[in-house]
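Journal club prep, shared notes

We agreed each person brings one worked example of a sequence with its structure written out as tokens. Mine is Anti-sigma factor antagonist. I'm keeping it raw so we can talk through how to read the token line rather than staring at a rendered picture. Sequence first:
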Amino acid sequence: MDVTIHFKEIDHKLYGYVEGEIDTFTASGLREELEAVKITEGLEIELDLSKVSYMDSTGLGIFVAFYKRAVREKGKVKLVGLSNRLQRLFEITGLSDLMDIETDKKVELR
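Then the structure, token by token:
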């Protein structure tokens, strides 16, 4: 299975919807999409992971790199809609203490 991501910007806030499996085979596409995001100072980004069915350490690394770039460029990233499984993955790696994660929210793309 592939991974897809769709973006929509509304009022200086970027909403992204990620779907599929994120592993070593699909991660390059996700990485390219996230690297193409133009982050400006004050930009808020919400990524909905509610349709991510699987993620390995490669996926974690991609989100950490994106988070670090956003912080460096004075933007904000929030991950929303994580399943219990994904939430646990972020917790056991300590990333839930570093990143802004909200598990019960989903991004609504109009």
